[in-house]
Amino acid sequence: MSQTSSPEKIHDLIGVGFGPSNLALAIALEELAETNGHALDALFIDKQTDYRWHGNTLATQSELQISFLKDLVSLRNPTSPYSFVNYLHQKQRLADFINLGTFYPCRLEYNDYLRWAAEHFATQAVYGEEVLRIEPELREGKVDHLRIVSRDPQGRETQRRARSVVVGSGGTPKIPDAFRAFKNDPRVFHHSQYLSALQQLPCNEGKPMRIAVVGSGQSAAEAFIDLNDSYPSVKVDMILRASALKPADDSPFVNEIFAPEYTDLVFNQPHAEREKLVSEYHNTNYSVVDVDLLERIYGILYRQKVAHQYRHAVLCRRTIEDVVETAAGIELTLRDLATDVRQTHRYDAVILATGYERRSHRELLAPLQQHLKDFEVDRDYRALANPEFGANVYLQGFCEASHGLSDTLLSVLPARAAEIGQSLYQHLGKQASNAPASLRQTCA
After folding, report:
1. CA nearest 139: which of 444, 432, 391?
2. pTM of structure
3. Coil, strand, or helix at residue 358?
4. Which of 10, 66, 376, 415 is the most exposed place for a label (fewest CB within 10 A)?
5. What family is reported (predicted)?
6. CA Rg, the chain, in Å?
7. H helix and E strand count, the chain
8. What CA–CA distance (Å, rounded) separates 239 from 220?
9. Distance between CA atoms of 209 and 398, rounded to whole angstroms?
10. Neighbouring residues of 236: CB distance < 8 A, sequence distance ≥ 6
11. Per-domain boundaries in the chain
12. How far apart are CA 426 and CA 75, in angstroms?
C-alpha cells in the first residue's frame, strides 16, 4: 500500500499522532471491520521517524504507574491478540514476567509493547511527518471533508484529504515563563528531552556537574533517582513550590475514578460539577509521586546525613524569582515562601519537569474554529460543530474537562477507542448515504 495519497483520494479517517490513543483506535477499527463487514480507510501520521512512546524519558528505573491489564485492548477484549499478555507470550517472557510478581512493567518494556503492536499497522502509518494544520474543504457551501497538511524533516509539505480526523497529538512541554529565553540553550531543557539532552552534557563523560530539577511530580522524582544512580559525579537540587513531595493516591476506591464507567458520571454533570470532580482527585495524577519513589528519595537524603556527605537536596517552598545566564552557569534566584529569604544558586544545567499543556489541538484545528463550538465535544469525543460542518473531528487526550481525569491517561484507551470507532462507522455511513451518486463509490 502506498503511504502517499493521491490528491483526489479521500480517506475515511486520518489520525494525527500514532501514540497509544490512536494505536488503540487502529485496533478497535480492525475489530469493528469484522463486525460491520467492511474496513474504514484509515491512515495515521506521526512526527517521529519511528515508533517511540516518551522515548527520551525512558530511564532504566522508571516504571509504568498503572497495571499492565490496562493495556491497549484488554479491558474491552481480553482475548485480543494485541494484549500485553500476548506480547509477553510472543516475546517468550510470559513466565519470567509472572516471576517478577508485579502489575507494573518498566516503561522500557511498555514502549517495546507499543512498538510491537504498532508494527501490525505499518501499512496504515506514516512516520516522520508533522501535521501542521487541518483545513476545511467546501462543497455547495458545506464543509464536505478536510485537508490535512503535513511536513517532513526536509521541509516538504504533503496534503491529504479525509472525511474525519482524530487528533491524538499528545501534550506539549510546559515551559515556565522564566525559562522561555533559554529555548536554544542546551543547559536548560524539558524532561521530555531528558536522555538526549543529558548525552550532550559533561556528566555523560563522568565530569562533575550541579543540576537543578524543577518540579514536584513523578517525572521530577524519576530524574532525581536516575541522576543519583547513573551519574555519580552529579549533585542534584530538586526545586518545588510545595511544602513537601506528596504521594500519589492510588488506593482502590479512588482508583475507581479511572474506570470507563466513571466517564459517564463526569460527562453527565453540569460544567461546575465536572470541575469539582476533576479538582477533587487532582492528587491522583498531578504534582504527586509514587510512594515507593518518595521512600527511595527520602532514604538517599537520610543516608547523606548519616555520612555527612551532602550531595543532593530537596528545596521545598521555593519559587524561582529570577534566571540569569552566566559564563559559569545558570543562576537561579530562589525565594523561600515561608521566610521570604532569597538565595541565588548556580547550576550547570536545569531540567524542567514542569508537565505538559494540552493545547496542540487548538493550533492544528484553528482553520476550523468558526465551524466548531470552542472545541467542546460530545460523549463520543466528536467535536460539536455548526450545521454546515459535514466532516468529523474527534479529540483524544484533550477532553479532561468534560470526560474526567482519565482522559490523558492510559486507563480508558480500550473503551474510548471503541466509542470513537463506533461513532466513525455511524457518521461515515450517514455521509455516504447523503453523498451525491457520483461520490458514493469512494464513500463506500
Report:
1. 391
2. 0.92
3. coil
4. 376
5. Belongs to the lysine N(6)-hydroxylase/L-ornithine N(5)-oxygenase family.
6. 24
7. 14, 21
8. 9
9. 38
10. 210, 211, 212, 213, 224, 227, 228, 311, 312, 313
11. 10-171+358-443, 174-248+286-352
12. 23
The CATH homologous superfamily of the domain defined by 174-248+286-352: FAD/NAD(P)-binding domain (3.50.50.60)
Within this chain, domains 10-171+358-443 and 174-248+286-352 share the same CATH topology: yes
Please state, in angstroms and rounded to a whole number, the distance separating the CA atoms of residues 45 and 15: 6
Upper half-sphere CA count for residue 193 (Cβ side, 13 Å)? 21
Grid coordinates 458514493 are at which residue? Answer: 440
Per-residue pLDDT of the chain (444 residues; tens, 9 = 90+): 335 556 679 999 999 999 999 999 999 999 999 999 999 999 999 999 988 887 777 666 677 888 999 999 999 999 999 999 999 999 999 999 999 999 999 988 999 999 999 999 999 999 999 999 999 999 888 999 999 999 999 999 999 999 999 999 999 999 999 999 999 999 999 999 999 999 999 999 999 999 999 999 999 999 999 999 999 999 999 999 999 999 999 899 988 999 888 999 999 999 899 999 888 988 888 889 999 999 999 999 999 999 999 999 999 999 999 999 998 999 999 999 999 999 999 999 999 999 999 999 999 999 999 999 999 999 999 999 999 999 999 999 999 999 999 999 899 999 999 999 999 999 998 766 555 444 444 443
C-alpha cell at 411: 486507563
Residues in the chain: 444
3-class SS at 243? coil
